[in-house]
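FW: tagging you since you asked about this chain on Friday. Here's the raw sequence from the shared folder, copied in full. Didn't touch anything.
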Amino acid sequence: MDLVQIVVLAVIQGITEFLPISSSGHLILVPYVTSWPDQGLEFDIAVHIGTLSAIIVYFRRTLFAMARDWLLSIAERREIGESRLAWAVLFGTIPIGIAGLVLHHEIETTLRSPLVVACTTIAYAVLLFIADRVGAQRRDLRTLGWLDVVVIGCAQALSLVPGTSRSGVTITAGLFRNLTRDAAARFSFLLAVPAMMGAGLLDLVGSAGSASGPADTRAIVLGLVISAATGLACIHFFLKWLTRYGVLPYVVYRLVLGAALLWVLL
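HL: got it, structure written out here
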């Protein structure tokens, strides 16, 4: 990998992982458009670790409180502080864990095509727009109930299909459940922590013993650092812009991208 490919892919991962426009879809499309050689599984793992690090750093206080109160809630067998939110994140991760284990082969083969990305990009843009318009947007994370967790958790499982966008589909589900934009986005990012950890472990297990040569250390280190820095900035500004401007810019982007892909492919 040359320096341009490393920087471009790392920046794309850092931005698209958190914006509702699909990171997996863009990482499929960019090599397709540029004819770049495959970046390799090691690089993919590195940039995912980078974006995971960005979430952990940004939400470090919330995550620490969730972990602390969760352990106390188990010891004392009652709800304490942020323990309810911690349980919600854990239970909300179960659907994507099951779907990932059952459908892993299909996701990595059959569904990894530009045509699938084009169709899901358009379909979920329409859903996101509808959710933003019909949702009451009056509830915060303190009001999160178990039906919300089930709905948003099952929606997250749909994100395994390239082009869907994990953040996009979970924010959509949260808006349909009448969460505010900020609450839907924050719960989406918190759900990403165990989901991305699980995906990373699966990739590490899958890559064990499959390396055909020495890893490109420069690409791995640069990809991790750049994706982490880009992801951290993206989370910060996205939460500000989402409250101020809503989801319309991302809906328009997805519709234009999906239409352009269909034009080229069909």
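FW: The chain has one domain: 3-265.
HL: agreed, and The mean pLDDT is 91.
FW: great, closing this out.
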